[in-house]
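Subject: Sanity check before I submit

Could someone independently write out the C-alpha cells for this chain? I want to compare against mine line by line before I put it in a report. The sequence has 55 residues.
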Amino acid sequence: MPQLNPNPWFFIMLTSWITYSMIIQPKLLSLISMNPPSNKTSSTTPTTPWTWPWT
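---
Independent answer below. Compare away.
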C-alpha cells in the first residue's frame, strides 16, 4: 500500500512546520496591532427573571 508510506509526506510536513515556526510566525508576531485593546470597564445590563407560565 503506497499511500501508507510516510517517507515523502513526513519530510514535507516537517519542512512546512519549520518554515512556519522559524520564518512566518516571528514576522506575524512582530506586527503592531492598529487597534490596541482599551481598558474599558465592562458594564452589565440589568436583567429581569423570566416568569414561566407553569410555575
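---
OP: Matches mine. For the report I'm noting this point. Helices lie at 7-29.
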